[in-house]
Specification:
The protein is of the alpha+beta class and 183 residues long. Helix content is 58%, strand content 13%. Helix 1 (2-76) packs antiparallel against helix 3. The protein is rod-shaped, with a radius of gyration of 33 Å.
Amino acid sequence: MLKKLWQQTAAAIVVSGLLVTIVLLAVAGYTVYNSEKSNMEKQMSLQTTIMTNDLETILRGAINRVELAGEVINGRIDAEQWMNMPELDEYYSSLVTRLLLPLAEGTPDAERMYFYFNSPLVEREMATGAVVLKNAANSWETQIDRSLLINKGGFDASNPDSFWYFGTLEANKARWLEPEVKE
């Protein structure tokens, strides 16, 4: 009988010890889990803040470049002369590509910069543009774009894809286009 009592006491002590160990491990695991979860959330929040600041810096730089390009172009192109002699758009497009090239080269995150003449103001059927873009070799090149025929081939005010051009005409001022992110 004494042996049986001793075995029951030992078994009770072992079972109690195991239960206490399981409870302590569960509490410790839950505490560690919550601590890691909190640390991970803080780390993700910090990473998001850093990435947001980096993106804002890139966009601010791009906006500054566009504003600088606008000032340079406004200072070099005589709008009155172009309005009176729209055939100068070829000359001015060439000039604008030379003005945009150094600005684009100093903007590593940019893929393209462009400036299009407001052709409907002078009753021209083609929107002539000065384009500076990265080519396949990732170097900058300049082009004069004469591919956009007003009100032909879907390039008209009713086409949402052409809003970048016709929206500017409606506002009658230059406008900033939201950057497109390529994945």
